[in-house]
Design a protein that fits this description.
Elements: H1 16-20, E1 22-25, E2 28-31, H2 43-53, H3 55-60, H4 66-109, H5 116-131, H6 138-147, H7 152-176, E3 179-188, E4 194-203, E5 209-219, H8 225-239, E6 246-251, H9 255-258, H10 264-270, E7 278-281, H11 283-291, H12 297-311, H13 314-326, H14 344-354, H15 356-365, H16 378-401, H17 408-429, H18 438-447, H19 456-473, H20 480-488, H21 497-508, H22 512-523, H23 526-533, H24 553-564, H25 570-582, H26 592-603, H27 610-615
Parallel strand pairs: 3-6, 6-7
Antiparallel strand pairs: 1-2, 3-4, 4-5
Helix pairs in contact: 4-7, 5-6, 7-26, 8-10, 11-16, 11-19, 14-16, 16-18, 17-19, 20-21, 21-22, 25-26
């Protein structure tokens, strides 16, 4: 059978504009004189139309003359003006739609309700009325603002579509990354629905890392390890998450997560869908647990009893505030303490200690609150000062461990620094050096006592107990520390090649013999050494990017895996704080899908593609 004849393609030539008064518009030649269109951009068709219909133009505007060129420009401008009557409203509608998406994204970032779009529009119009007063185009500006679609239903749809767009960007990054780690945590929302939050830390070929919310999954029934596992595996199946790239999982250490037989981690390790993964208990949670080892219950009980006696009654609280104002106190109220908040005890004690003189005066004057005798007990006051100083140090460590983009190496360094600080504090307490205990020092001065009268052995015992707890708890990361030390500085003089290779192999399941060869090659690579030390001050250089993939595949893989490790579940805890604001008592009927969309937009570093979203939307002005 003979092949069909290929259709011939005709192209419009720019010189035909002056020759025949034609332009190419909307895929067809259009006559500038009568606006007639010609089906095919053939020279003969254009010439026939021009000479047969507009022959007088050949005489009145001779070819190749300035007069003809001027007439062509004039007719083109008239055509563009006529076409703009139809295209301008479309352009304005698209601009209004893009503005609607942008405002909705701002509302999502600040965790505002869908209905606040109308409020923003009203505020914008009120501001425009005075802000653009005197502008010649004030009417057009106000009309453009009125055209922005920000009704509750429209804003809801904008949230949904932007969340989908951000999710698509995340999926592209997951497919492009070399490896990733996950962190899991679970908490209940306003209506007691358990929400499983999952964050992902992706590492790319250039050693850069990105942390994003992977998903938040509602658990309608039980929250056992198998329930968490089944919910996550259903998500993996739906999204086709490439689990073969998974390196580690970090959890909050709850039994449902860490149970030996039926915990989530145990089920993951038993499943064939998961590779060999590392798992860690959140460093911040472990640090908080270490702080609770302090056995100074009497101090906390009495301080809380006093604070509650003042704050429990509205009248007493008002009188105490007035008392603080009269005495020009630095603070205006006392704080309450709750065990579930990481920094609560340290802040509670610091505020109580700072306001202790005012508390004493108020309790003496008050008729309805009993004055506690312990407030005059010198030993109890010293214990209070010691606990205030020590919990303040623990709070400083906790804050240092918090934050986005904190990798496990930095967090381990902070913990090791704190352990060294505890050892220093303990050694200083023996001779009575209170440099690290300013509140204790001030209390001794108030009591008129010297350091020699201080029972430092008792306080040293407390410091040693916390240090021992830190040593006991952070065994999860003991296998990482020697590998991290080597990867941070691979040119040390006393590196045991065999030992380092064995530890990297056991941690990331790489070939020990190949690792030894790469470590030896790197130690003697003069060019890499020179390039690693030639960076200008302030210039950020990722050392492992200097290594060629072909020459150092295992060491690069080790660097990628180490960069991917999560050290804590801080991002999940932060997301739950966002969730409490988004799904508040005023929005308690919010669906799980809308909660997920709002939370994704509030926490994500991605920017939605506004042009793409508006192009796929039906662009209309607000009605």
């Amino acid at each position: 059978m003979a092949e069909g004849k290929r259709a011939k393609t005709y192209h419009f030539h720019p010189e035909w504009e002056e020759d025949y008064f034609f332009v190419y518009s909307h895929l067809k030649p259009v006559c500038l004189i009568c606006n007639a269109t010609v089906a095919l951009a053939k020279k003969g068709n254009l010439e026939r139309h021009f000479k047969s219909v507009h022959g007088s133009y050949e005489r009145d505007f001779p070819a190749k003359t300035p007069l003809r060129a001027t007439k062509v420009r004039e007719l083109k401008a008239q055509l563009a003006a006529r076409q703009s009557i139809f295209t301008k409203p479309k352009t304005q509608s698209k601009a209004a739609t893009i503005a609607s998406y942008r405002v909705s994204h701002v509302l999502a970032k600040y965790k505002k309700p869908f209905s606040d779009g109308d409020m923003v529009k009203e505020a914008f119009l009120e501001a425009a009325d005075s802000l653009f007063d005197g502008f010649k185009n004030k009417t057009e500006i106000v009309k453009a603002i009125k055209d922005v679609q920000l009704s509750r239903n429209t804003t809801t749809k904008r949230f949904e579509r932007m969340a989908v767009d951000v999710d698509e960007q995340l999926k592209k990054d997951i497919d492009a990354c070399e490896c990733f780690s996950l962190q899991f945590d679970e908490s209940t929302d306003m209506v007691d629905v358990a929400q499983l939050c999952v964050f992902i830390r992706m590492v790319f070929v250039d050693m850069s890392a990105k942390e994003e919310l992977l998903t938040i999954l509602p658990l309608k029934g039980n929250t056992r390890g198998e329930d968490i596992f089944n919910a996550f595996m259903e998500f993996v199946s739906e999204t086709k998450l490439p689990l073969f790239k998974l390196i580690s999982i970090t959890t909050d250490g709850a039994p449902a997560m860490m149970g030996r037989t039926s915990g989530f981690i145990a089920l993951c390790k038993e499943s064939e869908s998961f590779p060999d993964i590392l798992n860690y208990h959140c460093i911040i949670h472990q640090q908080a647990l270490c702080g609770k080892i302090l056995n100074m219950k009497e101090v906390m009980d009495i301080a809380m009893k006093i604070v509650c006696s003042v704050r429990a009654r509205s009248l007493q609280r008002r009188l105490f505030r007035a008392h603080l104002e009269e005495n020009d106190a630095e603070h205006t109220d006392l704080l309450l303490h709750t065990d579930v908040r990481w920094l609560s005890r340290g802040k509670f004690l610091a505020r109580f200690t700072e306001l202790l003189p005012e508390i004493k005066d108020f309790l003496k004057l008050s008729k309805h609150v009993d004055y506690h005798t312990k407030l005059e007990d010198h030993e109890w006051l010293l214990d209070l000062s010691f606990l205030t100083d020590l919990t303040g140090e623990l709070n400083d460590l906790n804050l240092d461990l918090q934050g986005k983009d904190k990798d496990v190496v930095n967090m381990m360094s902070s913990v090791n620094t704190f352990k060294s600080k505890l050892q220093l504090m303990s050694s200083r307490l023996q001779p009575g050096n209170l440099r690290n205990f300013p509140h204790m020092q001030a209390e001794l001065q108030r009591q008129g006592k010297g350091v020699t009268q201080l029972n430092s052995a008792r306080y040293e015992e407390h410091v040693q107990s916390i240090l021992a707890e830190f040593e006991r708890r952070f065994t999860d990361f003991a296998s990482i520390e020697p590998v991290a030390s080597y990867m941070c500085y691979p040119f040390g003089a006393n590196i045991d090649v065999g030992d380092i290779a064995a530890k990297i192999k056991s941690l990331f399941d790489l070939k020990s013999s190949d690792l030894e060869d790469e470590i030896l090659t790197l130690q003697n690579d003069i060019e890499i050494k020179a390039r690693s030390t030639s960076a200008q001050p302030g210039e950020h250089v990722v050392f492992w990017n200097l290594l060629a993939e072909e020459k150092y595949p295992n060491l690069r893989r080790c660097a990628l895996n180490l960069t991917a490790l999560f050290g804590s579940t801080y991002l999940c805890e932060s997301a739950f704080s966002h969730m409490k604001i988004i799904k508040s008592k005023y929005r308690s009927t919010m669906t799980d899908d809308h909660l997920a969309a709002c939370l994704r937009l509030a926490t994500s570093s991605y920017t939605p593609d506004y042009d793409k979203l508006s192009s796929s939307s039906q662009c209309q002005v607000s009605h």
